[in-house]
């Protein structure tokens, strides 16, 4: 989607059509409003994390950079370190997790059981100046902090390749 939203004009209605006594006036007004608003703010709706209760399936992430390292902070409320897997493959750091929540309440006149499940995966392509061997993570009070220490970038040696003509 683009950042620009096209304004949609709602057709003018005659006073008889919009009268509260007209049987379809409120339905038409609702439909006009729906199509008039179509596109406004929908980009934010689709980019918003899906949520199940208090847990977001796309956890909030902050990335900061210092002179020595990059730091990724991920909010994972209600999770523990055993619920999360952090892996590195082909210069891509991947964080996966799953939230399982069950609640059961038994009273004399009813029995309530609620279950909610959700999983997430976030991947980060590492810049060339990160030392993959020195990456480490810490989990404290629902926040995972991943430290990505920097290293010097060694530029590959440049060479000229001979071109032969036929």
TrEMBL record:
Matching entries from InterPro entries are given as: A-crystallin/Hsp20_dom (IPR002068), HSP20-like_chaperone (IPR008978), Small_HSP (IPR031107)
Biased composition regions of type Basic and acidic residues, renumbered to the chain: 1-10
Q: Where is the SHSP domain?
A: 52-166
Which CDD domains does the protein's record reference?
ACD_sHsps-like
Q: Which PROSITE patterns match?
A: SHSP
Q: Where is this region: Disordered?
A: 1-20
What family does this chain come from, according to its entry? Answer: Belongs to the small heat shock protein (HSP20) family.
- Record protein name field: Hsp20/alpha crystallin family protein
């Amino acid at each position: 989607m683009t950042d620009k939203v096209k304004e949609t004009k709602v057709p003018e209605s005659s006073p008889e059509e919009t009268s509260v006594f007209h049987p379809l006036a409120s339905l038409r007004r609702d439909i006009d409003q729906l199509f008039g608003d179509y596109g406004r703010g929908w980009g934010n709706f689709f980019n918003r994390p899906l949520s199940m209760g208090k847990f977001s399936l796309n956890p909030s992430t902050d990335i900061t950079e210092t002179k020595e390292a990059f730091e990724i902070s991920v909010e994972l409320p209600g999770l523990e370190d055993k619920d999360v897997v952090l892996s590195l493959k082909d210069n891509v750091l991947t964080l996966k997790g799953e939230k399982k929540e069950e609640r059961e309440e038994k009273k004399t006149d009813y029995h309530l059981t609620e279950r909610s499940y959700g999983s997430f995966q976030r991947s980060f392509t590492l810049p060339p100046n990160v030392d993959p061997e020195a990456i480490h993570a810490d989990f404290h009070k629902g926040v995972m902090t991943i430290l990505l220490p920097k290293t010097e970038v060694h530029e590959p040696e440049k060479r000229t390749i001979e071109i032969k003509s036929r």
